[in-house]
Every structure is written in structure tokens, then in C-alpha cells.
Design goal:
The complex is a heterodimer of chains A (396) and B (149). With 396 residues, chain A is mostly helical. Chain A folds into four domains: 11-103, Zinc/RING finger domain, C3HC4 (zinc finger) (Herpes Virus-1, 2-Layer Sandwich), CATH 3.30.40.10; 107-217, no CATH class; 237-313, no CATH class; 346-396. Helices cover 55% and strands 3% of the residues of chain A. A three-stranded antiparallel beta sheet of chain A has the order 2-1-3. The longest helix of chain A is centred in the C-terminal third of the chain and has 25 residues, at 346-370. The relative contact order of chain B is 0.17. In chain B, strand 1 and strand 2 (34-40) form a beta hairpin. A four-stranded antiparallel beta sheet of chain B has the order 1-2-3-4. The termini of chain B are far apart. Chain B has 149 residues and is of the alpha+beta class. Classes of the chains: A mainly alpha (396), B alpha+beta (149). The interface between A and B is large, with 56 and 47 residues.
């Protein structure tokens, strides 16, 4: 499983297989879209009760009106957003790496591990004194504490009743976050996450704030926006251009390119309205550009690349005439992005291929042993030679 | 090679790290959308003990469009023609983006276990299958022994 760590960008439910709680892989795969296999982004519910990313199901429906999971008829108008699920997925995705880190089985034994994390919590607390350990951490802990301490109703810190009634409550009312903290040595589940994510600047300071604001609430600006109705493909090209212009989209290209562009923008736009934290129209337009340059790229490489030939499409896409839409610079940038992605992951791909080839060879060897008589064609022999080369490489 | 969607990378990784028993799929070095597939004939079928070679290609609009799959090994089957083309609903009308390489290859393996001569692609084979079942099975077995190894 060691090659999983090579591509951090691509997460997979199997990442949990070697952690202390392997069943988390079930949760991981349940929170993924069955179309893109990535975490649900702006999830929507179909009539038949299935959930997909809004953009994925919208693209699917513009191909055919069938639910990908049960093939029941599904229409765009019946899609409903599921905001709570969006929240859940975002939380899981944000905390995934920390969870994995904390649940990984390392060589250090557990007791040592615990004490070290205790120390780090203490040092963190000493460092910036105002870490807010809220009281609603679960019953067990409360019971432990209740003997002689009570919880401050405002900041949730445990202390003696005298202290709360005296100075603390006034302080706390003035500045709920700045209260001093006595009950610090306990490693609570919350400080567990705080501790682990403290390196991640973006999550720690906002944690408390985020928790209160964003649950199942979309920003007000999005509520005013209307969905764009589906494109009526019978409208004249001029009308279509008007429409594109209205949304500040490019109006160059052939008729079917215009249609495609409009359709994809409608999908992106409507899907954005299903998201718990939607992006601006401008970033939608840049997403559209990215999508279109990808499509154009693909069309060019497709021409040179059919199923039965092994042409090297690297050359073909570089030599092909520039795509018709969008400025060349963007396209070149995207091509470079693709190239660097391929370059970056070249080793990983090679590893994957090696492993697969080894499996293939194992299977072949098994076969060869089973059937003594040799009826293989020349190509087989070549393959075998290649494979044994790789094999020896791996052994040495 | 234009960009490879994350989904394909994920599927490839999964196919290799957790392979389906009796199925291997290996991507080509030059084109990661093109896979060499080895498929074991299902036990209890006339294709038992055979290992069939297939090619699989993921078109640019995958997963909105189904993968293209073809047998390279000669096979005697009513739903697979001389050129290795396969008549299977999930490869055509019933394709869904929720399906994947893994499930498609399993479907093909299942097709070997239960041929459907009422919806044939190779008419002669289908006729033989319906009218002279024992002989058809015999031929399938012979072809498997001869070609699928």
C-alpha cells in the first residue's frame, strides 16, 4: 500500500485500510459521488433517493435522463440540494488528513504516544493561554469534573463556584474568548483535533466561528439568484450569442461550440447554487474556460489517437492548431499544467505499471506451467522478455 | 496525452492495489487510457481454464460515455463476434457513469458464464447454440483450449 502515499492529490477509501479504524473506509466511500468518485461537492438528491455532486448529475442528465445508479428516469427539475450533507462532507474532507495521521498505526507504542500528545497540548495551552476548552465534551468528562468544579455558562471552562461567581463571570461576559483557563491538562476530543490541526493555519483560528455560522445556511447573496433555465437549442445563433454575452461569456466559435459552452455554463451555474459555499460568477467563468480548453485539447488528441493504434498523443497535441476558443495563453498554461502533472506523477505511473505487469507475469507463469505445449505467437515472446527484464530490475 | 481525470487515476490505482480475482487490467505506458486486460474464463463454463486477452479504452468523455472493450483472443460465444466485439447492454444503452472498469470486466466475465443466444452478435454461433447446444459447448471448449492460453 506504500504507493498510495505518492499521490496525495488523489485520495481513496482504501487509505483507511491500514489505520486503527479500517471501517472508516466505508464512511469515506459513502461520502463520495458515484460519478466522479471524489467527495460530494454540492450534493443533490434525485427523485429515486440517490445523491450525486450537483455538477456531475447535471452533466449526466444533459446526456440522458437516467439515474446512474438505478437507471430510473431523472429530471433536472427534481434535483434538490442537501445542505447538511454538504456540511458533513466538507468537515470530513477538512479533517481527513488529521484523522488519518492520528489513527495511523505507528511504531511508537500507545502509552508513549498518549503522553507525548498530552505534553504537546499543555505546551500549546501554555503558549497562547487563551485556548478555549468548551465544556460540552461528553458526559464522562463532565462527571469526572463535577466533584468540585462547575462549568462557566459562557465559556464552558470548569472552575470552582466561587471563582465563577466572583471575578470570572464578569471577565467572561466582556470577553468570552479571552478567559483564563485552569482546567487544561485534560486531553479532550476537541483539543485533540485542535492540537493536530494547529499546523494548519486556516482551520484553527476560525474553528469556533465556523462552527456557529455555516451549518445548513447558504450565503444570502445566493438566495436571490435564479436558476438558469435549460437551453432551448432551437433559438437562433444571434439569440444564443446575446445570451452568452449576457453572462459575459465569449461568443466566438462555431454554433455547436456556443451551445456546448452555454450548456456547461448553465450546469456550472445551477450546480453552484446547490453548494453551501458557492463561488463567484467570475470563478465560474474561469472554470468554464478550463473545461473548454480540456475539451478542445481532447478533440485534437482524439483525432490522432484511436483505439487500435498507439500513437504518442504528446506530440499530436503540441503540433495541432490552437483551439478555436479562448486566448492561447490560457490554453498553453493548461497544457503546461497537464504536462507537469504527468511529469510529477510519472514515477508513480511507472510503479503502478510495474506492479500490474508483475501480476500479469505471475498469471502468465501459472499458465505456462499449466500448459506445457507452446502455441504463443511472437508478440507473446516479446512481452515475456520485457517482463522478465522488469522483473530482474526489481529484484536487483 | 491530455490531462487524465482524477477518476481514472483512482480507478487504475484501485485495480492494481486491490485486483479482482481472475482479472488483471494494465494501463499502457504511452496512453494511460488504454488497458491490456487478462480475463480468466469462469469455472463451470466452457471457457474454464482459458485466459482471454482483451483491450479496453476509456474515451475522452468517460465516464459519461462507456469504455470501449474488445476481445483479442478468439472466442466461440453467441454475443461476441469474429472481431471480438461484445454485445452487452452495459457497454451500450445501459451504461451509467456510476459503473467502472472493474464492474464492466466483471459483467463480461458473467457474460461468459451465461451466454444469451436470443440477442446474438454472432448469428451462426447463436444458431448452433440454440439448435445443437452440446456441439456448441464442445466447440467453445475446443477454441478455449486452442486459443485462450
Amino acid at each position: 500500500m506504500n504507493f498510495n502515499s505518492n499521490i496525495n492529490e488523489v485520495s481513496d477509501p482504501s487509505d483507511w485500510d491500514n489505520c486503527k479504524l479500517p471501517s472508516l473506509s466505508n464512511l469515506d466511500s459513502l461520502l463520495r459521488c458515484q460519478i466522479c468518485k471524489d467527495f460530494l461537492n454540492a450534493p443533490v438528491l434525485t427523485n429515486c433517493g440517490h445523491v450525486f455532486c450537483s455538477i456531475c448529475i447535471r452533466r449526466t442528465i444533459s446526456n440522458s435522463n437516467k439515474c446512474p445508479l438505478c437507471l430510473e428516469e431523472t429530471y433536472e427539475s427534481s434535483l434538490r440540494k442537501v445542505l447538511i450533507l454538504d456540511n458533513i462532507v466538507k468537515w470530513f474532507n477538512n479533517n481527513r488528513n488529521d484523522l488519518l495521521k492520528n489513527l495511523s498505526i505507528d511504531l511508537v507504542n500507545d502509552s508513549q504516544n498518549d503522553s507525548s500528545s498530552d505534553i504537546s497540548v499543555i505546551s500549546e495551552l501554555n503558549g497562547n493561554g487563551n485556548v478555549n476548552v468548551n465544556g460540552n465534551e461528553g458526559k464522562k468528562e463532565k462527571e469526572e469534573v463535577q466533584d468540585n468544579l462547575v462549568e462557566c455558562p459562557i465559556c464552558g471552562v470548569f472552575m470552582t463556584p466561587d471563582e465563577i461567581q466572583g471575578k470570572h463571570i464578569d471577565q467572561c461576559l466582556k470577553n468570552p474568548n479571552g478567559s483564563t483557563n485552569r482546567n487544561t491538562k485534560r486531553t479532550t476530543s476537541r483539543s485533540f483535533f485542535k492540537n493536530s490541526s494547529s499546523s494548519d493555519e486556516s482551520t484553527t483560528p476560525k474553528n469556533t466561528k465556523k462552527r456557529q455560522i455555516n451549518i445548513q445556511l447558504q450565503p444570502n447573496s445566493i438566495k436571490k439568484k435564479q436558476r438558469i433555465p435549460n437551453l432551448d437549442t432551437s433559438i437562433s445563433t444571434n439569440k444564443l450569442k446575446e445570451k452568452l454575452n449576457y453572462y459575459k461569456l465569449p461568443i466566438n466559435g462555431k454554433r455547436n461550440e456556443l451551445e456546448q459552452r452555454m450548456k456547461e455554463f448553465i450546469n456550472l451555474y445551477n450546480a453552484n447554487l446547490d453548494s453551501i459555499n458557492p463561488v463567484s460568477d467570475i470563478s465560474l467563468i474561469s472554470k468554464l474556460k478550463k473545461w473548454e480548453s480540456l475539451i478542445n485539447n481532447n478533440i485534437h488528441s482524439q483525432n490522432n489517437n484511436n483505439i487500435h493504434s498507439d500513437t504518442n498523443s504528446n506530440n499530436s497535441s503540441a503540433n495541432s492548431s490552437p483551439p478555436i476558443t479562448f486566448d492561447e495563453e490560457t490554453i498553453r498554461r493548461h497544457q503546461n499544467e497537464h504536462k507537469s502533472w504527468n511529469k510529477k506523477n510519472k514515477n508513480h505511473y511507472e510503479d503502478l505499471i510495474k506492479i500490474a505487469r508483475m501480476n500479469m507475469q505471475k498469471q502468465k507463469n501459472k499458465q505456462l506451467i499449466n500448459n506445457e505445449d507452446n502455441n504463443n505467437n511472437n508478440k507473446h515472446h516479446i512481452d515475456d522478455d520485457e517482463l522478465s527484464d522488469i522483473d530482474t530490475e526489481l529484484i536487483t | 496525452m491530455s490531462s487524465l481525470p482524477k477518476r481514472i487515476i483512482r480507478e487504475t490505482e484501485r485495480l492494481i492495489s486491490d485486483p479482482v480475482p481472475g482479472i488483471t487490467a494494465t494501463p499502457h505506458e504511452e496512453n494511460l487510457r488504454y488497458f491490456d486486460v487478462l480475463l480468466d474464463g469462469p469455472s463451470g463454463s466452457p471457457y474454464e481454464n482459458g485466459v482471454f486477452k482483451l483491450e479496453l479504452f476509456l474515451p475522452d468523455d468517460y465516464p459519461m460515455a462507456p469504455p470501449m472493450v474488445r476481445f483479442l483472443t478468439k472466442i466461440y460465444h453467441p454475443n461476441i463476434d469474429r472481431l471480438g466485439r461484445i454485445c452487452l447492454d452495459v457497454l451500450k444503452n445501459n451504461w451509467s457513469p456510476a459503473l467502472q472498469i472493474r464492474t464492466i470486466l466483471l459483467s463480461i466475465q458473467a457474460l461468459l458464464s451465461s451466454p444469451n443466444p436470443d440477442d446474438p452478435l454472432a448469428n451462426e454461433v447463436a444458431d448452433e447454440w440454440k439448435n445443437n447446444h452440446d456441439k456448441a459447448i464442445q466447440t467453445a471448449r475446443e477454441w478455449t483450449a486452442q486459443y485462450a492460453k
